[in-house]
Design a protein that fits this description.
The protein is α/β, with parallel strands linked by helices and 501 residues long. The chain contains 13 helices and 25 strands.
Length: 501
């Protein structure tokens, strides 16, 4: 490893970690709402786009409508309500180019260490070049993690007994091989989340379609068919100016998704009835009862959307099926189930989900002492107690990620402007009374429960609650009184052996 000498250009006011949908949106808000703020985006990969550049499996698409997943400042003009990954990636690239954001991105730059010095009021970042392994350092006044909370290097990949005996090919969607030919193959997709329900119809489409695809699930997932296109949106776009139509459709979709979520949470039994009836229209009541009626309530885990009911149509065509069973072990010809049935396969896709990783793997320290994240609380879903001049971007679990992300971007700008006006070099959120700790993400999904103890907590009242309600958040977040909830951080004694740059 080598470390190059730091130069004056290696200090900026703000470092944004991640050049995906959130990072590009954060950069736009800094440029427009905190003008004059110098910033750099550090991206560990060699291209922008984040999730939408990394994932290349067949059929990858958004699971939120693009009128709310897209930026409020750049109308989504495509007709697809749930867009494919390539279209979203192009949209992010266009945004970065249009607003001069691209020139601020440093690629192949992964933050591997971050230490805040309370005396100087600066972060010192250790950055690894992911192409060479070399390391360098830079400093910044404020650190903003827009890398999400998934581990994109190490997916959730259970070890299956007998996997080494399988004579076909095993692939994981997160690392989809470019040379995989599934034409005429028998495919088993393990999993029933958003990735699995996307893969099944996608692998049956086109000229190089699989012969048959089985979705193997241990437990059913709540799935609902949604329209492929938003007809009302298309009508509004045909009669209204683009920006006006975009705002109208965005408001309509926010209201609808909020209402659906509230309905599911307040009247779960009625929601069960509606959702199962939706599925039964496509596959019948027997299939619905056997494979599409989960034991948990709607929105205890994320609800999957299938545009045009494509998954259900694949099943009724006879080219796909859903099997609900447990895996006993892999065998040479496929998968032996606990029931004794063997699912024959040429390709097995382990759509078993992602691991959670706090803030892109960054483990922040203050004056040389690493912060125990699980002891901290999140303020307004953005800043964290015990960590000065630091914010995270996390989206909604029940609505488009970008809705909360954009609120957080604007809140960060408000904090930075407030710090400048008041001459504060370092601030952190501080509760005025004891808080009752609650998990940061209120989902019962396995991938959440496995890792949530490594994350900071939310409290039992605002602004310490991470609410799943954009309507309320849009009213209150930017009205938060910073003078009463943020406090200046005094210089502290550094831990032995750590030197500020």
């Amino acid at each position: 490893m080598s470390t190059r000498e730091q130069t004056p250009s290696d200090h900026v006011d703000v470092v944004i970690v991640g050049a995906g949908l959130s990072g590009v949106g954060a950069a736009y808000r800094l440029q427009t709402e905190a003008p004059g703020t110098s910033y750099t985006i550090l991206e560990g990969r060699t291209a922008l786009g984040g999730t939408w550049d990394l994932f290349r499996y067949p059929g990858i698409r958004s699971d939120s409508d693009m009128y709310t997943l897209g930026y409020s400042f750049k109308p989504w003009r495509d007709g697809k309500a749930l867009a494919d990954g390539a279209s979203i990636l192009e949209y992010i690239r266009e945004t970065a180019d249009e607003f001069g954001i691209e020139e601020h991105i440093r690629y192949a730059s992964k933050v591997v260490d971050a230490d805040f010095d309370t005396e100087s009021g600066h972060w010192t970042l250790t950055i690894e070049d992911t192409t060479t392994g070399d390391r360098r350092s830079m400093t910044c006044g404020f650190l903003y993690s827009c890398a999400g909370y998934y581990d994109y290097d190490d997916p959730q990949a259970p070890e299956f007994p007998g996997a080494e005996t399988f004579t076909g090919r095993v692939v994981h969607p997160q690392f989809w091989p470019t040379d995989l030919d599934h034409d005429g193959s028998r495919v088993v997709v393990i999993g029933s989340g958003a990735t699995a329900v996307t893969l099944v119809p996608a692998m049956l489409a086109g000229d190089e379609a699989a012969a048959h695809v089985t979705m193997l699930q241990r437990t059913p997932t709540w799935i609902s068919a949604v329209p492929s296109t938003d007809k009302l949106a298309e009508r509004l776009k045909s009669v209204l100016p683009a920006k006006v139509a975009h705002r109208a459709v965005r408001a309509k979709n926010i209201a609808f998704s909020t209402a659906v979520y509230q309905f599911c949470r307040r009247w779960p039994e009625k929601a069960r009835t509606v959702l199962t009836a939706n599925v039964a229209k496509f596959v019948g009541e027997d299939q619905t009862a056997a494979h599409f009626t989960p034991p948990y309530d709607p929105w205890d885990q994320r609800l999957c959307a299938v545009p045009g009911g494509d998954l259900f149509r694949s099943i009724t065509s006879g080219r796909a099926e859903v099997v609900t069973d447990h895996i006993e072990r892999f065998v040479p010809e496929g998968i032996l189930l606990r029931s004794g049935r063997i699912l024959e396969a040429d390709i097995i896709v382990t759509a078993t989900g992602l691991r959670l990783s706090a803030f892109g793997g960054i483990r922040p320290s203050v004056d040389g002492e690493q912060v125990v994240l699980s002891d901290q609380f999140v303020w307004n879903g953005a800043m964290i107690t015990g960590i000065p001049n630091f914010a995270i971007c996390i989206g909604y679990t029940n609505a488009s990620w970008t809705l909360r992300a954009d609120l957080t971007h604007r809140l960060v700008c408000k904090v930075i402007n407030w710090m400048g006006r008041n001459g504060h070099r370092a601030v952190e959120p501080a509760p005025d009374a004891e808080l009752t700790p609650q998990p940061l993400l209120d989902l019962s999904s396995g991938y959440v429960q496995r890792a949530i103890d490594a994350f900071p907590r939310q409290g039992d009242r605002r602004p310490w609650q991470v609410r799943q309600n954009y309507v309320l958040d849009s009213i209150t977040t930017l009205r938060t009184d910073l003078d009463t909830t943020l406090r200046p951080v005094p210089a502290r004694r550094r831990a032995p052996g750590r030197v500020a740059v």
